[in-house]
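Rotation project, supervised by the postdoc (A.L.). Task for the rotation student: set up a whole-complex structure prediction and record inputs and outputs verbatim in this book. Inputs entered:
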Amino acid sequence: MHELSLCQSLLRQVAAIVSEQGSGFVSLIELQVGELSGVEPALMQHAFPVVSQGSIAQGARLLIQTRPLRVLCERCGSESDAEAGNLSCRACGNWQTRLISGDELLLTRIEIESSAITR
Amino acid sequence: MCDTCGCNVTHGNAHLLKPGGRLEKTSEGKQSIDVLKGLLSENDHQARHNREHFDRHGVLAINLMSSPGSGKTALLEATIDALKDHYRIAVVEGDLETENDAERIRAKGVAAIQITTGSACHLDAHMVHDALHKLKLSDLDIVFIENVGNLVCPASFDLGQHHNVTLLSVTEGDDKPAKYPVMFRTTDLLLLSKTDLLAVLDDFEPDRAEQYLRKLANLAPVMLISARSGEGLQDWLDWLEIRMSERQAEQQGIDQTTSQVRL
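Outputs recorded:
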């Protein structure tokens, strides 16, 4: 699956942010992942230690916040929860809805320790 | 500069270090940085670049996705037969191994660039970019990108295409849109392929496949098609024709703007 290549891409982004700040080790990486993003958080958690080996993010905690599926109905205007296989409006049953949450695939925050001594 | 006495705090960055600032330290003295950046931003950046390439040359780019064996290459063969006298076509082929599909396309007299991904289960924008360098886009009207047969991973990667077309063969089961919502939610056209087999299959209902697609809030047209019998082929060709005219209209708009700027 593609979680491995996503982890590699994530690490390149993290490395770029750290070098922008100067230097340091990454202790935490926070992601937001929606159910319809195509990414499986568990696979991401498995891939991360492998890919981050020897990098500035080795040993960092990967915190993945899953985002709920929410849709906005284009007919009745209601916002409701949804399932991956059924994005219809819960209020009126209309299938023409717009996804307002649940396809996120975002790097939201990282924490950097300025020195290796604190590790 | 050190990180102890505060000599690295300047007028320019002080606001970032204050409580609530982007570089505020956590209670353990760690630096916390809010990012909010797409995990696929590298790929998306390259995809935008690819799309600009296509647009500059007025080329229509179509990303064909499906499970393995649902008839993408057969559809392309039939499409090339029907269109090659009207349009200049090239195909980018994605497969884990072999040049087989590219050879089938070349046998039809059009250029095919094979990307063998090894173990990678999808094409990404960088692979497509490398392949595009082997094609002369100014001599082309349509580029079909035949993605790796897989209903999961290809859905996550923008390649720079203008439209996603997903094939679902009638031997696969009509509930595939419900099982692979990420892929089917974003398709611009659903082709139910191998419909010549419907006569011997009693468990595939095209209407049911369409209902599952609608449950993903997807308005995309659904067409029944058989590359073998030719059924529905004209609907697909008409759809392509409309997409081509849209591209050409857009291209004329771009050309006019450019020439006005030059004036």
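Student's summary: The beta strands of chain B are 31-38, 60-65, 89-95, 111-116, 142-146, 163-169, 189-193, 222-224.
Supervisor addendum: Confidence is low (pLDDT under 50) at residues 1-8 of chain B.
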